[in-house]
Amino acid sequence: MRTRDEIECWLTDMDGVLVHENQALPGAAELLQQWTDAGTPFLVLTNNSIFTPRDLSARLRSSGLNVPEERIWTSALATADFLKQQSPGGTAFVIGEVGLTTALHEAGFIMTETNPDYVVVGETRNYSFEAITKAIRLLLKGARFIVTNPDATGPSAEGPMPATGAIAALITKATGMEPYVVGKPNPMMFRSAMNRIGAHSENTGMIGDRMDTDIVAGIEAGLHTVLVLTGISDDSEIARYPFRPDEILDGVHQLLAREPIESDQI
């Protein structure tokens, strides 16, 4: 088993690891600074496809975290990267926000409602029955079905709200077509992130707060996995799964160089 000392590059989830409800978690700012000072390649990952990296960088800055936009990798960017490799200069009908449309534009894709190569569904706060209907009809005419992330619900101040996975399920039910999902837990997202920073699985670590996305995808991508308990996972949640991360920490503060290692080595 690899030890943490062998890790030269890091991928980390954002919500539940670095921030919680727009508040920086203990040790997050210091860890990011530690990586920056040491020249350690890293990326902050999120399955949220609504925002551009610039938007997210500004959001993190308001929480007291300095993460340049080039250090942020979203499911929208991973989707655009995947589609660029699959069909350079292709066309797409998109249900999503600026984070997704910008990423696809920058990857050389053309947005169209006429015989697109792909129907791409991402996160949005403005799902339109008309747009969903159009997506269904285009898929039935031969377009291929791509989804940025599988999350069925997302958080809001009022409680859970339907997210990408829920809308994708509606479209699947209407067409009988299952989408290809690029974001976590597809290890494809981690591989594209590693390509972005020139990292290799042998010396890369993944920090996350969810067993069902961050940790399982990290394991499948061959990474050193670190679960932090500042998000949704606790001992009972961990016990539900047949796999285990390499380390379980109370929070990212335990990854700081000056901190003694008090992890559960598994």
Automatic annotation (TrEMBL):
Record-listed Mg(2+) binding positions: 13, 15, 209
One GO cellular component, as annotated: cytoplasm
InterPro entries named among the record's database cross-references: HAD-like_sf, HAD-SF_hydro_IIA, HAD_sf
UniProt GO molecular function: metal ion binding; phosphatase activity
Residues that, per the record, bind substrate: 184
Keyword Metal-binding: yes
Cofactors required: Mg(2+)
Catalytic residues as annotated in Swiss-Prot or TrEMBL: 13, 15
SUPFAM superfamilies: HAD-like
Cofactor binding remark: Divalent metal ions. Mg(2+) is the most effective.
Top-level taxon in the UniProt lineage: Bacteria
Keyword list, A-Z: Carbohydrate metabolism, Hydrolase, Magnesium, Metal-binding
Family the entry assigns: Belongs to the HAD-like hydrolase superfamily.
Protein name per Swiss-Prot or TrEMBL: HAD family hydrolase
